[in-house]
Amino acid sequence: MAAETGTPTTLTLKSNDDELFSVAESAAILSVTIRNMVEDGCAGGVIPLDNVDGKTLASVITYMNGISAIPADEEKKKSYRDKFLSDKDFETLADMVLAANYLNMSCLMDAVSAKIAQVMEKKSVGWVRRKFGIENDYTPEEEAAVKEEHKWTFEGVETDDDN
Amino acid sequence: EKIVAASNYKIINNIDNDDDGVDKISRLPDDILVSIISRLTVAEAVCTSVLSTRWRGLHKYITRLDFSPTSKQLQAFKDQEKKRGRNKKGDDRVFEEEVVRSCASIIDRTLDSLKGGAALEEIRLYLPWFQINTWSEDETWPIKRWLYFAFSKKV
C-alpha cells in the first residue's frame, strides 16, 4: 500500500449505473482488483467498476465492511458469511458471484459458490433440473450416452429427494 | 387508507424457496459454474454433465477433487471391516484389494480426464487405513502417483 502521507483512506467506487459509494480502503482491498489499483496509484479519484450494478455493489460493500470488521477468526468470519448469504435469493447470489469474480474476491466467490452448490448436494439430476428450471436439451439417445459415459457416478451418488 | 410498510411482512426469500422455473443458473459463465460444481464431490460434479448440453464436460475443469465416499460406499467399507474381524485373512484381502483398485481406477480416470493446466486448490481422498495397510510396498504406487499429481497441480 502507498505509504505517502495524504493517501486517501476512503475510496470512491462507481457502479455501472453511476451510483457512487464511499468505502474504507482497508475494506475495499479485500478485492484484489481494487487492491492492485490502489497499489498502482490509480485509486485517487473515482474507481469505475464497469461490471457491477449499484444494487450488487451495495451488497458487496456491506460484505466488505462486515467481514473486515471481524478480527482474524476464521470461525467468526464463516458464521458472518453464512448469515450474510442466508436471505439472498438466487438472482442476488448470481449477481454477487459474478461481481466477486470480477473484483477478484476469493472469499466471497468461494462462499457464494458453496452456497449454490449446497442446493445441488445429494440431489438427483431430475431434481436439480426442476429446481433451477434447466431444460434438458439432450435427445434421449444423447442423454443415455452421457449417462453411460459416467456410469460410475450414478452408482455412487445417493440422493435424498424422490427424483 | 393505511399503508403497511413492506418490512412488516418479513417474507424470507432465499435460495431454498426461490424456484420460478426460469433457468438463470445455466446463463452463468463457465468459470462460475465450474467454481460452483468444484464444491461438490467428484461424483456429483461429474453427474452435472447430464443436466443439459450446457453442463456437459464442465466437470473436467473443477479445481477441487473431493473423492469422499457416499454413505453407501462407507457402509460397504464398514461391512468389509466387520467381515474381516470375523474371518481370517485369505479371500478378504483379495476383496479389499479389489475395492481399492476400483476406487483407484475412478480416481485415475478422473485425474486423466482433467483438462487444462489450472492449479488445483484441494484434493480430498478417503483411504481407509486397513486397506492401505494390506498393500505391500510395490502396491502403494497409485498413491505415490496421486501425490505427484497433487504436487504438479500445486495443491
CATH architecture of the largest domain in chain A: 2-Layer Sandwich
User: What does the largest sheet of chain B look like?
Assistant: 2 strands, parallel
Provide the residue-averaged pLDDT of chain A: 88
Radius of gyration of chain A: 20 Å
Strand line-up of the largest beta sheet of chain B: 1-2
What separation lies between the terminal Cα atoms of chain B? 63 Å
What is the helix/strand order of chain B? HHEHHEHH
Number of strands of chain B: 2
Q: Roughly how much helix do the residues of chain B carry, as a percent range?
A: 40-55%
Say what the CATH topology of the largest domain in chain A is. Potassium Channel Kv1.1, Chain A
Helix content of chain A: 55-70%
Mean pLDDT of chain B: 68
| Number of H/I helices of chain B | 6
Model regions low in confidence, pLDDT < 50 over at least 5 residues of chain B: 5-10, 129-138
Order of helices and strands of chain A: EEHHEHHHHHHH
Protein name (chain B): F-box domain-containing protein
Domain F-box (chain B): 25-56
Organism (chain B): Erythranthe guttata
Keywords (chain A): Ubl conjugation pathway
Please describe what this structure looks like.
The complex is a heterodimer of chains A (163) and B (155). Chain A folds into 2 domains: 10-120, Potassium Channel Kv1.1, Chain A (2-Layer Sandwich), CATH 3.30.710.10; 125-156, no CATH class. Chain A is elongated and about 60 Å long. Helix content of chain A is 57%, strand content 8%. With 163 residues, chain A is mainly alpha-helical. A 3-stranded mixed sheet of chain A has the order 2-1-3. Chain A is built from 9 helices and 3 strands; from the N terminus they run ββααβααααααα. By secondary structure, chain B is mainly alpha-helical. Chain B has one domain (28-152). Chain B is built from 6 helices and 2 strands, in the order ααβααβαα. Chain B has helices at 30-37, 42-47, 71-86, 91-113, 129-133, 141-152; strands spanning 64-66, 122-124. Chain B is globular, with a radius of gyration of 22 Å. The interface between A and B is large, with 47 and 45 residues. Chain A: Residues 108-152 form the SKP1 component dimerisation domain. Chain A: InterPro entries: SKP1, SKP1-like, SKP1-like_dim_sf, SKP1/BTB/POZ_sf, Skp1_comp_dimer, Skp1_comp_POZ. Chain A: Pfam families: Skp1, Skp1_POZ. Chain A: Keywords: Ubl conjugation pathway. Chain A: It comes from Erythranthe guttata (Yellow monkey flower).
